[in-house]
Each structure stands twice: as C-alpha cells, then as structure tokens.
Amino acid sequence: MRTPLLPVTMPSIYKKNGIAVPLPKRMALCSPDTQRALYAIRQELLAQQGDLVLSDLFRSYDMQLQSHKDYVSGQKKAFSPAPGGSLHEAGRAFDLDLGAIRISLSELWQIGKRHGAYPVIAQPDPKQSEAWHFDVRGSHNVVYEYYKRGEASNMKPYTAMAVSAILATDIRVDVFENRQGEAFLQSGLVRLGHTLGAIDGRIGMKTQAALADAGIALTSLDAMIQAVENQLQARFPDEYTSPDLLIADTGQPSTSDAIAAL
Q1: SUPFAM superfamilies annotated for this entry (predicted)?
Q2: Which of 98, 158, 96, 102 shows the shortest CA–CA distance to 125?
Q3: Contact 100, 53 (CB under 8 A)
C-alpha cells in the first residue's frame, strides 16, 4: 500500500456567483497526516475567530507543469518548480489566505508546528513571498536531512524530499524514467534510516547492502517494495491511515463522508 491521497473539505479563496466555495476537488486531496494537520489547524484558528482558507493543496502533474510554466513566463512571481520538485504533488503542501487567519504569522507558525506543518521561509514576515506556504513533510524530512548532510548530491535536499513524497503516492517522477519502483525502494530505505548513496533508481551494491541491513532479501522488485512498504507502514502509521475525523464545531465532514461525496 502506497501513501493514499484522501479527499478533504476545506474553505477556499474561490467563489461561484459571488459565494465562497470549498477548495475544488481536483486540489482537495492530501496525505492522511496532512489531512490531520489541516483539520487540527483549522480547529485552532476557528477558536480564535479566524479560519484556514486555502488557495492550493494537491497539484497533478499537469497542474504542476502549468504552474512552473507560469513562473518561467513571469505570469507567476512565486517560484514553482517543474514536476517532480514540489510537495504539492504529494498532497503535502498547502497555500493559505493570510488575511483569514486573524492572528499573527508567528502565532500561526506555532500552531502549525504542533501539527507537523512548517513554513518554507526563515522569518515570519507576511510580506515575504511564500509566507502563505506550509509543508507537512512527515517521514520525508528524513530524506531532506540525508541530502542536507551530504549523504548524496544528485539532487538538492528539498527536491529529494519532494521526490520521495511523490514516489510514495505512486505518482511518476520523470527523472527516473522506467525506474520508478527502484527509486521508491531507495527512498523508502532512506526514510527507514539506511544509507545507500544517491536515490537514483539504480540498485547497486550500496542499495543491496541497505536492503540486507533492513532484513530484506534480494528477490523480485515487487517483493522488495512490499517488504519496504510494510516497514514504512509500521514505522509511520499516521502517513497511511485515515484519521476519519468529525469536527462537530466546524461542520467538518469525516473522511468517509468526503470520499462518499466524490
């Protein structure tokens, strides 16, 4: 089982006939731990007369490609990487309306931190580009730190983390061509704490040694992937299981209700 993308019902900046509507379904997908974070952050903001109003969450390959093209052409000022480089593609990044939170950005950072959502800028300055962007890195932060400390250098740390998160949802990352499963296997081993050099989709001696360290026999790719997935689910259960929340005070539907509505 790969990390599922669950539907989520959240307020959005978008309107239809002048009336605010929920985040469009094509964007309203996220990982289970991101769903938990969104619901919990919103509940805290509502208690302070604010709200969590989103402008972006999940992006498909085509949506990310268009966002990147808009950035390259100058139509969009905020940086947007090519497909394979954004946590939006894994349902682990969200953009929000800062005007709706009704608290300071530094206070929002503290709320986000409690629920595993972190900013991508260094200081809580609402005037800074990307002040509205938050990531729920989950176990993929292990990949970020792995690259940051120099265990591999074929990608920048943030890109490596995004690649890991995207592969975990079984979405294609172009750079690995026909080696998607091998790349997922490697990223999974890194998330489990093993060292194998670069995540490049090539099963060499270092990856084989990491498999042995994980107690996984060198067999078929499918069998090795399943073994890694089993360990990942045991280590990081919140990234695989639906929270199935019902927040009565906010009228927030449960996950099962949201799925049924699709």
Answers
A1: Hedgehog/DD-peptidase
A2: 98
A3: yes
CA-based end-to-end distance of the chain? 21
Enclosing H/E stretch for 20: strand 19-22
Mark whether 116 and 21 lie in a shared domain.
yes
CATH of the domain at 40: 3.30.1380.10
Compute mean pLDDT per 10 residues along the chain, 262 residues long, and list them: 94 96 97 97 97 97 92 87 95 98 98 98 96 98 98 97 98 97 98 98 98 98 98 97 53 39 38
Q: If you search the block for the tokens 């067999």, which residue do you land on?
A: 219
Which of 3, 74, 62, 2 minimizes the C-alpha distance to 27?
62
Amino acid at 183: A
Residues 100 and 21 in one domain: yes
Q: Residues 89, 166: contact at Cβ < 8 Å?
A: yes
Amino acid at 141: N
